[in-house]
Amino acid sequence: MPLPLFADASEPARDLHVIDQDGFDTWLAEQSADVKTWVTAAGFDGGQGQALLLPMGNETPSVALAGYGTEKSRARTRFALAAAAAKLPKGTYRIASGLTGRALEVETLGWLLSGYRFDRYKSQPGMGARLIAPDGLNAGAISAVVTGEALTRDLINTPASDMGPDDLEEAARDLAAAQNAQISVILGDALLAENFPMIHTVGRAAHRAPRLIDMRWGDTGPQITLVGKGVCFDTGGLNLKPGASMGLMKKDMGGAAAVLGLAQMIMASGLAVRLRVLIPAVENAVSGNAFRPGDILTARNGLTVEINNTDAEGRLVLADALSLAQEEDPDLVVSMATLTGAARVAVGPDLAPYYCDDDTFASLLEDAARNQADPVWRMPFHTPYEAMIEPGIADLDNAPKGGFAGSITAALFLRRFVGKARYAHFDIYGWQPTDAPARPKGGIGQATRALLDALGRFPQ
C-alpha cells in the first residue's frame, strides 16, 4: 500500500484543536456551555492520545480535539499528536490551534509516519485520519522524509527469503532509477579482481553472491559518502548463533536500509551535495567454504585481520567499503550498521549511538537530532583501547576477547580504514521492539532525519 501523505487542501476538513493538558482548565473555561458539557461527559481532559469530535450544531464538518498530554508526559515519548491521530475517525483534518513552530513540524511528521503499514504479506487497514499540510511548512520536504523512512522500514521488515543481496541490489537500482542516480555493482568473484577480499570472504558461503553496490548522485556541494552494512542475514557463520539470537537477523542489513532511506531523503529534497552510497551486500552463511575462526584476512587497504569470531562479520565488509570511500578524499564519510549488541546494552534500542572525532559536525548533528525528534548519543573513539584490537599475530582482531567496550572497539576497528577523512559511525539497532506513536513494532530508521538536517547545514 502506498504510504499516505498529505491530503489535498481543497478537501472538506475538520478543524483540529490540539489541547495541552497543562492548560486544559483554562481552555475549557473559555468554551460555550454546550462544549463544556460535551467535553466533560466524554471524559476528555487533554490527556495524551485522547481524541474527541465536537458536534457543532448543523455545521459540517465538525470540530475535533486531540489530547497533547503534559510537558512531562511528552518528555517520555515522541510524536504525542500521533497517538491521538490514530484514534480520530476517518476523514480529513486541518490543525487549527495548539501547535506552532518546531512542535508543529515534528508532530506533522509524526502524523504522516503513523500512516505506515507493512502489508507485503498481509493486508493491513489503513489510517483513517488524513492531514492537510499546515500553512508555512515545507510539505515537499516532510513528504520526502516520510517516503525515505518508509523505504527503510520496508527493507528491514522484509524477511531474508525476499531480501537477499540480490533483492537489496534491486531496491538500490529502483531508487537510482527513480532519482536519476548512477549505479554500478561489483558481483561475486569480481570482488576479488577489484580488491574487495573481505566482502567476498564473508559472503562466499551463501548461495546468493556477495556484491558491492555503488550509487552516485549530484554534482555540486560537499562530497558525502554513506556506507551501509548490508548483511541480509547473519547466521553467525561457523560461530553459529543460537536460535534466539538468530530470530531478528533479517534486520542485520539495517545499516544499508538506513543509508538507502537517507539517500532517498537527500535526493528527493534536492540537497546540494555530491552523494555516494556504498553497500557491501552479503549473507553470512555456513557451508564448506565459509571463513573460519583463526583465519587471517587481508583487507583492501593492506591491513591484516585475525578472525576470532565469524559472527563479527559486519565490520569486515564495512572495512573494504570504507577503504574505497576514503580513496576519493570525501568531505564526510558516514557508516551505519547494526553492528554490536554492546551498543544496545549501553543505550537501549531507542538511542542511536555514534562516534565522531569532529566536534563541529557532532554539534551540528546533535542540534539536528533535537530538531527532528531523532535522538542520538555521542560515544568516544577512545584511543587507549586501540591495543584491544591488536592481536599481535595480525594488524587487527575482529573480535577482541574480554567483552569490554564492544561497541567502542568495533568503531576503532572501522576507523583504521577511513584514513584522514572526516568520519562518523552509527551503531544503530534498526528495530522498534514495541508499538509507539508513529513507530509500530518492526523496522525503523534511526539518525537518518538528524543526518539529513545536519547535512543541509554542512559547510560547503
Specify the CATH homologous superfamily of the largest domain.
Answer: Zn peptidases
CATH classification class of the largest domain: Alpha Beta
Please give the radius of gyration in angstroms: 24 Å
Mean pLDDT level: 96
Identify the overall geometry: elongated
What's the β-strand tally?
A: 19
Query: Strand-residue fraction?
Result: 15-25%
Low-confidence stretches: none
Euclidean distance between termini CA atoms: 39 Å
CATH topology of the largest domain: Aminopeptidase
The CATH architecture of the largest domain can be given as 3-Layer(aba) Sandwich
Number of domains: 2
Major sheet size, sense and barrel closure: 9 strands, mixed
Please tally the helical runs, counting DSSP H or I stretches of 4 or more residues: 16
How much helicity do the residues have? 25-40%
Briefly note the structural class of the backbone. alpha/beta
Question: Overview of this structure, please?
Answer:
The protein folds into 2 domains: about 15-135, Leucine Aminopeptidase, subunit E, domain 1, CATH 3.40.220.10; about 145-455, Aminopeptidase (3-Layer(aba) Sandwich). It has about 450 residues and is α/β, with parallel strands linked by helices. Helix 9 runs antiparallel to helix 12 (about 315-325), helix 11 (about 255-270) packs parallel to helix 16 (about 450-455) and helix 14 (about 360-370) packs across helix 16 (about 450-455). Strands 6, 7, 8, 9, 10, 13, 14, 15 and 17 form a 9-stranded mixed beta sheet that branches. A 5-stranded mixed beta sheet has the order 2-3-1-4-5, sandwiched between helices. It has helices spanning about 25-30, 35-40, 70-75, 80-85, 100-115, 140-155, 165-180, 190-195, 195-205, 245, 255-270, 315-325, 340-345, 360-370, 405-415, 450-455, and strands at about 15-20, 50-55, 65-70, 90-95, 130, 180-185, 210-215, 225-230, 230-235, 275-285, 295-300, 305, 330-335, 350-355, 375-380, 395, 425, 430, 440-445.
